[in-house]
Design brief:
The complex is a heterodimer of chains A (about 220) and B (about 325). Chain A starts with 7 loop residues before the first helix and ends with a helix. Chain A has one domain (about 5-210). In chain A, about 80% of the residues lie in helices and about 0% in strands. Chain A is an all-alpha fold and about 220 residues long. In chain A, helix 6 packs antiparallel against helix 9 (about 160-175). Chain B is α+β, with helices and mostly antiparallel strands. Chain B is built from eleven helices and twelve strands. The termini of chain B are far apart. The chains are: A mainly alpha (about 220), B alpha+beta (about 325).
């Protein structure tokens, strides 16, 4: 299948820039809404713009975490090796959206009122979860370069398993702050479960395959 | 001059003779404290007539000294950003999903510990009263706030007409239960029908009203038409919408949010900056309509109505009875 054997040039010069631009769409919409542009097409931020913007960016942060987690199962299912090249970019977009979400909280929602922010982080469990997630994402973003990867060796993988933790904490963070309608966080939870579950399934299948081939050789 | 004298002569009935006592007292206070006195004279007490067309102007609305002079939120904000879970859990859902909601004919049942009980149609229920504009602060349990110019009638005047017995310690309210018309009720986000309640003293408090209008117009569907409660010193969820039942009871009624999460939403639900919601702070609030860079403001005890209502709770532990 041709899709499996795209040239490096096609991927780097063609597909990557397209994916990059697509990933910028939600951010562009957020910025356009801040300035009230194209409101009849993309809608506005409504009566509570700070809450609306914070919610929008947080949702996209969570979506990008899950999209990044989709890469490796997709890679295995479709047998398209080059999909792996998009993981870093998607992860960095997840970080970008979560960071913007945090900055809206810090600057616009809390107005940098340190006393309340500290109280929030220490006393509101859902905010504590959010802060832990942001910390992990930051660690992964900082160590995402090729140089860092080389230098950190085996530790690099350990740090980047943090994605799984971030996905779980991110959904939890969302779940804990809705009032009673848990429909949306429940959908995110289900997707997270499937994405993490698929890894377990792949692991088991791989192990069976290995055992089977070992048996064949022995037999 | 002569003409005016004649007019006065032909109108010898005192306002107190044709008006419920409390309305009369309110008017005396108006005369004393506000420039609205002229308005009160220009519109003598008249039976409230509710029009039916959307956004119809309400006639004979008098001003009230109980109104705040804070700037009101825009009609657009009040009618497009609110909670009314019967029409969806998003803030814009009620405006979108309540447009076809049928609010006429509308009847209410009055039941329980009162002399006059039964089912009444909305027009008869409202008509003995004078409509008043009440500009109140609104504080949502989600930590945002607005200032809303309601039009309504004091609940106390309504209650007096039904003459509750001495057993009536509480007043329970119930919203219409109609999943056909209220799409939000097709999912069990809360236990339907929505129920709320007040102590009889809270219900009789002069600040407590039943609202039928907004901005001098008929109450829009998404804000709880045709009849809703407004209790400005409590979190917004206490102010139940689209009421079909009022019940006088000796026991504290079950209330929807309290059933849903008893640790988070108490029966009283008085605005209290010192008692946090288990998941978020209630110390500050986001005033709606002040733009991107407006800071949050400090939440006031009883939403700024402490002078009027704190007496209701003397001796009550507000931390425990949240």
């Amino acid at each position: 299948m041709a899709l499996r054997q795209l040239s490096i040039v096609t991927i780097r010069r063609g597909i990557k820039p397209i994916v990059f631009v697509i990933c910028l769409i939600p951010l562009s919409i957020a910025i356009a809404r801040i300035f009230g542009l194209f409101e009849s097409y993309i809608g506005g931020l409504g009566a509570n713009p700070v809450e609306s913007l914070m919610d929008y960016l947080g949702q996209w942060g969570l979506r990008f975490i899950l999209i990044a987690l989709l890469v490796s199962p997709l890679q295995k299912l479709m047998r398209i090796a080059w999909l792996g090249q998009f993981r870093r970019m998607l992860g960095l977009f997840a970080f970008t959206y979560v960071l913007s979400h945090f900055l809206v909280y810090l600057l616009l929602d809390q107005g940098l009122a340190l006393q309340y922010i500290i109280e929030d982080v220490l006393e509101r469990p859902f905010i504590t979860l959010g802060m832990i997630s942001l910390t992990l994402l930051t660690a992964m973003a900082v160590t995402s370069t090729n140089g860092m990867r080389r230098r950190l060796k085996a530790n690099w993988q350990r740090i980047h398993y943090g994605t799984y933790v971030v996905a779980i904490l991110g959904v939890w963070h969302y779940w804990w702050q809705v009032k009673s309608d848990i429909a949306e966080p429940a959908i995110y939870a289900l997707i997270t479960f499937l994405l993490l579950g698929s890894r377990v399934v792949f692991k088991i299948l791989q192990k069976r395959k290995r055992q089977a081939s070992a048996k064949d050789q022995n037999g | 001059m002569t003409k005016r004298n004649t007019n006065v002569g032909s109108n010898k009935i005192l306002p107190s003779e044709i008006t419920p006592h409390s309305t009369y007292l309110n008017r005396r206070e108006l005369l004393r404290v506000s420039a609205a006195a002229t308005a009160a004279i220009a519109f003598p007490t008249q039976a409230a007539v509710l029009p039916t067309e959307r956004r119809a102007k309400l006639d004979g609305v008098i001003e009230s000294p109980l109104s705040t002079d804070a700037a009101t939120n825009s009609y657009d904000a009040i009618t497009n950003y609110n909670n009314f879970y019967e029409f969806g859990t998003g803030k814009a859902d009620p405006a979108e999903n309540a447009q076809d909601f049928q609010t006429r004919p509308w009847s209410l049942s009055v039941s329980g510990e009162a002399e006059h009980t039964g089912t009444f149609n909305l027009e008869d229920f409202i008509s003995p009263h004078t409509l008043e504009e009440r500009i109140y602060r609104l504080r949502c349990v989600e930590a945002w706030s607005m200032v809303v110019p309601w039009v309504g009638i004091p609940l106390a005047d309504v209650i007096k007409r039904y003459n509750p017995t001495s057993n009536a310690k509480y007043v329970g309210f119930e919203t219409l239960d109609d999943p056909e018309q209220m799409p939000g009720q097709r999912r069990r986000v809360l236990k339907w029908p929505y129920r709320e309640g007040l102590t009889i003293a809270e219900a009789m408090h002069p600040l407590t009203i039943l609202a039928v209008g907004l901005y001098g117009e008929l109450l829009p569907n998404q804000n709880g038409a045709p009849l809703r409660l407004v209790v400005p010193w409590k979190y917004g969820f206490k102010s139940i919408k689209s009421i079909v039942g009022i019940d006088f009871s000796s026991r504290q009624p079950n209330t929807s949010w309290n059933i849903s999460a008893p640790r988070e939403y108490g029966f009283y639900a008085n605005v209290n900056p010192e008692v946090s919601h288990p998941r978020w702070s209630q110390a500050r609030e986001r005033p709606i309509g002040e733009g991107f860079f407006a800071p949050k403001k400090d939440t006031l005890m009883f939403n700024g109505y402490a002078d009027q209502v704190a007496d209701l709770y003397s001796g009550l532990n507000l931390r425990r009875n949240f």
